[in-house]
Amino acid sequence: MNSYDYTYTNNWFDQLSTMSIGLIILSIFLFLIVLAALIFLIVAECKMFKKAGEAWWKALIPIYSTWTLTKISGLAWWWFLIDVVVAFTTTRFSSTDVSYVTGFAALMISFNYYYNIAKKFGKTGGFAVLCTLLPIIGIPMLAFGSAKYDKNVATDINGVFAIDGKLVK
Questions:
Q1: Which of 14, 83, 85, 169 is the most buried (most CB within 10 A)?
Q2: How far is it, in rounded angstroms, from Cα 16 to Cα 89?
Q3: What is the pLDDT of residues 129-157, one digit of tens each?
Q4: How large is the average pLDDT for residues 73-88?
């Protein structure tokens, strides 16, 4: 006589818990990758500030780091105000069509900062595009590379998109 049990039970709860554990492990893994990238970028920005003659800790304070970035890039003070307003507007209206416009504005402001910073580190406009679109690559190259910051390099105080072209040192 055959003593095998041929009944099949489909326990959906066991399958669901197995999938949930897998998603939790994947989420933790992705979180650790993002956290490591964020820490690396913060350390690189601290090093870049130090190379530019500013205190490294200024990169750790959110709004003050933007003000310091404005000083390092040689832009006028009102670029800082525009950046703060755009950042607030982008986060406030994140689910509306306004966020597309402010997101593009934030990208242009970031390019404006990094264009002047790239010039002061002896790099080209193409490097500013790299720092704007892939800061995880561009900023560490400035921070840990051989580029030297020269505050005497002439940059436009009104930004790269300015019409009058007032260069200041």
A1: 83
A2: 40
A3: 999 999 999 999 999 999 999 988 888 88
A4: 90
Q: Which amino acid is at 169?
A: K
Helix (H) or strand (E) holding 155: strand 155-156
Percent of the chain, pLDDT > 70? 83
Residue given tokens 């003050």 in the structure block = 64
- Give Cα separations from 29 to 14, 18, 33, 137, 158 (angstroms): 23, 17, 6, 21, 43
**Predicted pLDDT at 69:** 94
SS3 of 143, please?
Answer: helix
pLDDT, one tens digit per residue, over 51-71 is 999 999 999 999 999 999 999
Query: In 73-112, which positions are buried (b, 16+ CB within 10 angstroms) versus exposed (e)?
Result: bbbbeebbebbeebbebbeeeeeeeebeebeebbeebbbb
From residue 19, give the alpha-carbon distance in Å to each of 9, 26, 32, 53, 93.
18, 10, 20, 51, 35
